[in-house]
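User: My instructor asked us to take a sequence, write out its structure as tokens, and then describe one feature of it. I'm not sure where to start. Here is the sequence I was given:
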Amino acid sequence: MRTALRTALATVALVGTATASIVSAHAASAATSPGPAGSSACVAATTIPSVFGGGMKVRLVSSADHGASATLLDAKGHAVATVNQSRPTDLADGLKITGVLSAKPVFGQRSQGGTTPWQSTPFPALTADCTLHGTLSRTLRLDARTTAQIFKVSADHHQARVFQDGKLVRFLDAHSLAGAALFGNRTLVLDPVGGTVSWTGAETAVSPRLGRYKLANGAIVKLVQRNGVYGAQLTTSHGTFPVSYAKGRPVVLQDNVTLVVLGADGTLSNHIYSKSVQKTPVYLGA
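Assistant: Let's start with the prediction itself. The structure tokens for your sequence are:
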């Protein structure tokens, strides 16, 4: 019989991670059909005229994963200067961002220094599930370079921000379904009630081959693509579950002790709760 587990797993202690109870979410995520990434990628962008004139423009980008950034472009579209979370103010080029990691960053530009007033423009807004709403509940140290801040929105809605070397690199939103992030060789999964699981390795290469992959416990993951969007189908001893598609953001597939994360670029990462060492999925063919 095909079974979609909805109950949370028992709390599991993992070396180098917080204890976790990740909610299985096959039935809900399976209803998601493929389509353009759109706002689900948690990026919004617009282009505005530059105060310097002469055909120059400024490209404004809001990203839940990296914060706000603004790039000054010349008349041919070549980048002249950029401000972002690493450098939010560039007085020499008359650029600055106020609240670079906030929910409502503002871009400022001016053509002269001194007391010349700044011309302000709000960055394009992100969708609600791509915007930080919660209050900080705890901070996890994942490794020497990486920390994750966990935010509570409500009892069954949590969010997280991942920082590497002090810079924001990923944003997770877990509301009804678990959220996930892949960065470097690490994967982080956050469940709606705030539980986390993190592991290193055990992921396929970027732009992997379509077809079937075998996990360390014998489970099978089939990687597919439709309308330019990657999808994954999990088969375990409980049966074969519907395809879940990663439309701009990673999706989580889980059954019993098997946890799989599919990235929007087709990367597969897996964690088997009964295994002390995680292994990369083995490609079986189309």
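For the description part of your assignment, you could build on this observation: The first strand starts at residue 43 and ends at 49. Try explaining in your own words what that tells you about the chain.
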